[in-house]
Design a protein that fits this description.
The chain is α+β, with helices and mostly antiparallel strands. The chain has a single domain (3-114), classed as HIT family, subunit A (2-Layer Sandwich), CATH 3.30.428. It has helices at 7-12, 60-76, and strands spanning 20-23, 27-31, 39-45, 92-94, 110-114. It has a five-stranded antiparallel beta sheet, covered by helices on one side. A hairpin with a 3-residue loop joins strand 1 (20-23) and strand 2. The structure holds guanosine-5'-monophosphate (5GP) and zinc ion (ZN). Zinc ion (ZN) binds at residues 3, 6, 8-9, 48, 107.
Protein backbone atom coordinates (compact mmCIF):
# COMPACT_ATOMS: atom_id res chain seq x y z
CA UNK A 1 0.00 0.00 0.00
CA UNK A 2 1.28 3.45 -0.95
CA UNK A 3 1.32 5.58 2.20
CA UNK A 4 -0.12 8.47 0.17
CA UNK A 5 -3.23 6.37 -0.23
CA UNK A 6 -3.49 5.41 3.43
CA UNK A 7 -6.53 6.81 5.21
CA UNK A 8 -4.93 6.89 8.67
CA UNK A 9 -1.66 8.43 7.37
CA UNK A 10 -3.86 11.20 5.96
CA UNK A 11 -5.74 11.57 9.26
CA UNK A 12 -2.42 11.72 11.17
CA UNK A 13 -1.24 14.48 8.81
CA UNK A 14 -4.58 16.37 9.06
CA UNK A 15 -5.15 15.90 5.32
CA UNK A 16 -8.49 14.31 6.24
CA UNK A 17 -10.46 15.77 9.17
CA UNK A 18 -11.02 13.78 12.33
CA UNK A 19 -11.99 14.47 15.94
CA UNK A 20 -8.59 14.17 17.57
CA UNK A 21 -8.36 13.62 21.32
CA UNK A 22 -4.57 13.26 21.62
CA UNK A 23 -1.44 14.00 19.56
CA UNK A 24 2.30 13.80 20.05
CA UNK A 25 5.29 13.19 17.75
CA UNK A 26 4.74 9.44 17.72
CA UNK A 27 0.99 8.84 18.07
CA UNK A 28 -2.40 10.34 17.54
CA UNK A 29 -5.82 9.34 18.81
CA UNK A 30 -9.22 10.25 17.41
CA UNK A 31 -12.89 9.30 17.56
CA UNK A 32 -13.93 6.34 15.41
CA UNK A 33 -16.26 7.65 12.68
CA UNK A 34 -18.72 4.79 13.32
CA UNK A 35 -18.58 4.17 17.06
CA UNK A 36 -19.39 0.68 18.25
CA UNK A 37 -19.65 1.79 21.89
CA UNK A 38 -20.43 5.06 23.77
CA UNK A 39 -16.66 5.67 23.88
CA UNK A 40 -14.75 4.48 20.81
CA UNK A 41 -11.34 5.95 20.00
CA UNK A 42 -8.61 4.80 17.64
CA UNK A 43 -4.94 5.15 18.57
CA UNK A 44 -2.38 5.00 15.74
CA UNK A 45 1.36 5.42 15.38
CA UNK A 46 2.17 8.22 12.91
CA UNK A 47 4.59 5.86 11.17
CA UNK A 48 2.88 3.67 8.61
CA UNK A 49 2.87 0.04 9.74
CA UNK A 50 0.18 -2.00 7.98
CA UNK A 51 -0.63 -4.58 10.64
CA UNK A 52 0.48 -5.96 13.99
CA UNK A 53 1.92 -8.89 12.05
CA UNK A 54 4.32 -6.45 10.34
CA UNK A 55 5.82 -5.37 13.66
CA UNK A 56 9.41 -6.39 14.39
CA UNK A 57 11.21 -6.86 17.72
CA UNK A 58 12.52 -3.28 17.47
CA UNK A 59 8.89 -2.07 17.49
CA UNK A 60 8.44 -3.35 21.06
CA UNK A 61 8.94 0.14 22.64
CA UNK A 62 6.42 1.64 20.19
CA UNK A 63 3.84 -1.05 20.95
CA UNK A 64 4.43 -0.77 24.68
CA UNK A 65 3.95 3.00 24.57
CA UNK A 66 0.81 2.56 22.48
CA UNK A 67 -0.77 0.28 25.08
CA UNK A 68 0.18 2.65 27.90
CA UNK A 69 -1.31 5.54 25.93
CA UNK A 70 -4.58 3.59 25.68
CA UNK A 71 -4.60 3.23 29.47
CA UNK A 72 -3.81 6.94 29.89
CA UNK A 73 -6.64 7.97 27.53
CA UNK A 74 -9.01 5.57 29.28
CA UNK A 75 -8.20 7.27 32.59
CA UNK A 76 -8.81 10.72 31.07
CA UNK A 77 -12.12 9.52 29.64
CA UNK A 78 -13.19 8.16 33.03
CA UNK A 79 -13.20 4.49 32.03
CA UNK A 80 -10.00 3.23 33.66
CA UNK A 81 -10.55 0.23 35.88
CA UNK A 82 -10.06 1.25 39.49
CA UNK A 83 -11.90 -1.55 41.26
CA UNK A 84 -14.34 -1.07 44.07
CA UNK A 85 -17.58 0.84 43.90
CA UNK A 86 -16.94 3.33 41.14
CA UNK A 87 -18.26 3.97 37.65
CA UNK A 88 -14.76 3.48 36.29
CA UNK A 89 -15.51 -0.06 35.22
CA UNK A 90 -12.82 -0.58 32.62
CA UNK A 91 -12.46 -0.73 28.86
CA UNK A 92 -11.53 -2.97 25.95
CA UNK A 93 -8.50 -2.63 23.69
CA UNK A 94 -8.71 -4.38 20.32
CA UNK A 95 -6.18 -4.70 17.49
CA UNK A 96 -7.83 -6.38 14.51
CA UNK A 97 -5.18 -7.98 12.33
CA UNK A 98 -5.65 -9.05 8.71
CA UNK A 99 -8.82 -10.25 7.00
CA UNK A 100 -9.21 -13.08 9.53
CA UNK A 101 -9.14 -10.52 12.33
CA UNK A 102 -11.63 -8.24 10.60
CA UNK A 103 -9.11 -5.46 9.85
CA UNK A 104 -10.53 -2.90 7.42
CA UNK A 105 -7.92 -0.14 7.50
CA UNK A 106 -4.36 -1.33 6.88
CA UNK A 107 -2.53 1.13 9.14
CA UNK A 108 -1.89 -0.30 12.61
CA UNK A 109 -4.47 0.95 15.11
CA UNK A 110 -5.80 0.00 18.51
CA UNK A 111 -9.49 0.46 19.30
CA UNK A 112 -10.34 1.83 22.76
CA UNK A 113 -13.91 0.91 23.65
CA UNK A 114 -15.88 1.65 26.77
CA UNK A 115 -19.05 3.00 28.32
CA UNK A 116 -22.46 1.62 29.08
CA UNK A 117 -23.40 -1.65 27.37
CA UNK A 118 -24.77 -3.05 25.14
CA UNK A 119 -22.32 -2.14 22.38
CA UNK A 120 -23.28 -2.45 18.72
CA UNK A 121 -20.20 -4.46 17.66
CA UNK A 122 -16.92 -5.62 19.16
CA UNK A 123 -18.94 -6.16 22.32
P1 LIG B 1 -10.59 -2.09 11.71
O1 LIG B 1 -11.78 -2.88 11.27
O2 LIG B 1 -9.60 -1.88 10.58
O3 LIG B 1 -9.95 -2.62 12.96
O4 LIG B 1 -11.15 -0.69 12.14
C1 LIG B 1 -11.19 0.43 11.32
C2 LIG B 1 -12.02 1.46 12.03
O5 LIG B 1 -11.82 2.70 11.38
C3 LIG B 1 -13.53 1.17 12.00
O6 LIG B 1 -14.03 1.06 13.33
C4 LIG B 1 -14.11 2.36 11.24
O7 LIG B 1 -15.34 2.79 11.77
C5 LIG B 1 -13.02 3.41 11.40
N1 LIG B 1 -12.95 4.35 10.28
C6 LIG B 1 -13.02 4.05 8.96
N2 LIG B 1 -12.89 5.16 8.22
C7 LIG B 1 -12.73 6.19 9.09
C8 LIG B 1 -12.55 7.61 8.92
O8 LIG B 1 -12.50 8.15 7.82
N3 LIG B 1 -12.42 8.35 10.07
C9 LIG B 1 -12.46 7.78 11.30
N4 LIG B 1 -12.33 8.62 12.33
N5 LIG B 1 -12.64 6.46 11.50
C10 LIG B 1 -12.76 5.67 10.41
ZN1 LIG C 1 -0.74 4.67 6.95
Amino acid sequence: MDMNDCLFCKIAADKIPSRKVYEDEIFCAFHDIKPAAPIHMLVIPRRHIATLSDCAPEDAPLLGKMILLIAQLAAQLGIAYRGGNTNDTGFRMVINTGPGGGQEVYHLHAHLLGGKRPWSRMG
